[in-house]
Amino acid sequence: LPVQSAITQPRPGAAVPPGELTVKGYAWSGGGRAVVRVDVSVDGGRSWQVARLQPQLQPQRHGRAWAWVLWELQVPAP
């Protein structure tokens, strides 16, 4: 299963002030494979940036990853 992701901040339709904006979300994969990278586009797919993954709170057992991972990215807001 390819990595799936959702944006949790900012909320859809939210007004954001100009300047730096923190975009946050979560991502998951399937088959017990860990998420190792999340790419985010803020310009409709013209360019992509690699988000920072939050450290896992607990190590996964048996070499498998069954949970989601949090991510965030700082981007300029026009």
From TrEMBL:
Metal-binding found in the keyword field: yes
Pfam families on file: Mo-co_dimer
Record's keyword terms, sorted: Metal-binding, Molybdenum, Oxidoreductase
InterPro entries found in the cross-reference section: Ig_E-set (IPR014756), MoCF_OxRdtse_dimer (IPR005066), Mopterin_OxRdtase_euk (IPR008335)
An example Gene Ontology CC term for this record: mitochondrion
UniProt domain Moybdenum cofactor oxidoreductase dimerisation: residue ranges: 1-76
Coiled coil regions, renumbered to chain: none
Source organism of the structure: Rhinopomastus cyanomelas
Requisite cofactors: Mo-molybdopterin
Molecular function per GO: heme binding; molybdenum ion binding; molybdopterin cofactor binding; sulfite oxidase activity
GO terms, biological process: sulfur compound metabolic process
The protein's name: SUOX oxidase
Lineage: Eukaryota, Metazoa, Chordata, Craniata, Vertebrata
